[in-house]
Amino acid sequence: MDKILHQPLGGNEMPRFGGIATMMRLPHIQKTEEKRELDVGFVGVPLDIGTSLRSGTRFGPREIRAQSVMIRPYNMATGAAPFDSLNIADIGDVPINTFNMAEAIRIIEEAYDEILDLGILPLTLGGDHTITLPILRAIKKKHGKVGLVHIDAHADVNDHMFGEKIAHGTTFRRAVEEDLLDCDRVVQIGLRAQGYTAEDFNWSRKQGFRVVQAEECWHKSLTPLMEEVRAKVGGGPVYLSFDIDGIDPAWAPGTGTPEIGGLTTIQAMEIIRGCQGLELIGGDLVEVSPPYDTTGNTSLLGANLLYEMLCVLPGVQRR
Ligand code: MN
Ligand code: MN
Fold first, then answer.
1. What are the structural domains, with CATH classification, of the chain?
2. Which ligand is nearest to the CA of 126?
3. If you ran DSSP here, which 8-state letter would residue 42 be given?
4. pLDDT at 318
5. Which of 29, 176, 180, 187 can bridge 89 by disulfide, Cβ–Cβ 3.0-4.6 Å?
6. Residue 231 CB neighbours (<10 A)
7. Which residue spans adopt a coiled-coil conformation according to this UniProt entry (predicted)?
8. What is the pTM of this model?
9. Residues 139-189 pLDDT 10s
10. Angle between helices 132-143 and 101-117 (to 10 degrees)
11. Cα–ligand 2 centroid distance for 222 (angstroms)
């Protein structure tokens, strides 16, 4: 039997402003037996009860889908043709409990256990950054400890937030404590702004992470940096976690905790394209908050960065 290869609905089959908005106008696959055929699944996790300032990421998955309708199949810069060799679909949202964080985290982990058991590589539409913890917990069971490329204005290594151990700013401290990460294969890019102590980013460095503060990225191409990143995180499975607030609020204002002096959209593309060749086993794009995104540009950027992630997955052919 020929391999099934779902294709995004073309602009001549249904106007791009019409139809039901799935990620990239792909089929929405719900049946377990059809999910089994998939290589990659776009998954939404509409959580925002882990945010510390402005909320609204619960609307992220829906709006990223709405802003993804322009994306065509072929990457004209890199030649990547993801739909030529991988079976890809939108597998819908995880039905989180918006009143109970512990319960939400449990539901997310269980959902990803199932996704991974079905052999689907998840690309996640967030949701606040809390969601990466249960995803990494599920991934540990499938792949063992993973390397990590983490783009963010923040290190997200707080011990607690307002006394809570699970929140969007504690994700990677918990991930280290729970032994989910191969700490010598972790890079954090774009960190900036103010801390509570001058040592705030050094907790990461003490774990073995390579920390690339935003200032190290200013005024230059990040393509050379990515050579170093590949050498650091390679040699095993790697997860890619992209917090949209890593990008400057000039381009990505629709987020809960914006920080000035951030990365450009071009640098974001250089980072993701620079992940080509890594053994990527999943990725997420988190912290898009549509209520603060008056132009839709932040969701548009999020949708396109998820497409760029798709283009660097193992098994993607290039033309
Ligand atoms: Mn974050
Ligand atoms: Mn952040």
1. 23-318 (3.40.800.10)
2. 1
3. E
4. 94
5. 29
6. 9
7. none
8. 0.98
9. 999 999 999 999 999 999 999 999 999 999 999 999 999 999 999 999 999
10. 40
11. 19
